[in-house]
Amino acid sequence: MAEQATKEIDHDIMAFEPEPRTKDR
Fold first, then answer.
1. Interacting residues of 16 by C-beta distance below 8 A, sequence separation 6+
2. What are the boundaries of the region Disordered (predicted)?
3. Which pLDDT score, from 0 to 100, does residue 5 have?
4. Contact 14, 22 (CB under 8 A)
5. Exposed, middle or buried, 13 (CB in 10 Å: 0-12/13-18/19+)?
6. pTM for this one?
7. Tens digits of per-residue pLDDT, 1-25?
């Protein structure tokens, strides 16, 4: 459940905080 929400938030975070920790793929 949290995984799906994380994927959507990951997109927003990468928009204003491009960090290597969000680079999963």
1. none
2. 1-25
3. 63
4. yes
5. middle
6. 0.17
7. 566 666 776 666 666 665 666 666 5
Q: Cβ atoms within 10 A of the Cβ of 10, count? A: 14
Please name which of 1, 6, 2 lies closest in space to residue 14, comparing C-alpha atoms: 6
Report the largest interatomic distance among the alpha carbons of the chain, rounded to a whole angstrom. 24
Which of 25, 24, 22 is closest to 9 using CA atoms?
Answer: 22
Cα 22 to chain centroid, rounded: 5
**pLDDT in the model for residue 11:** 65
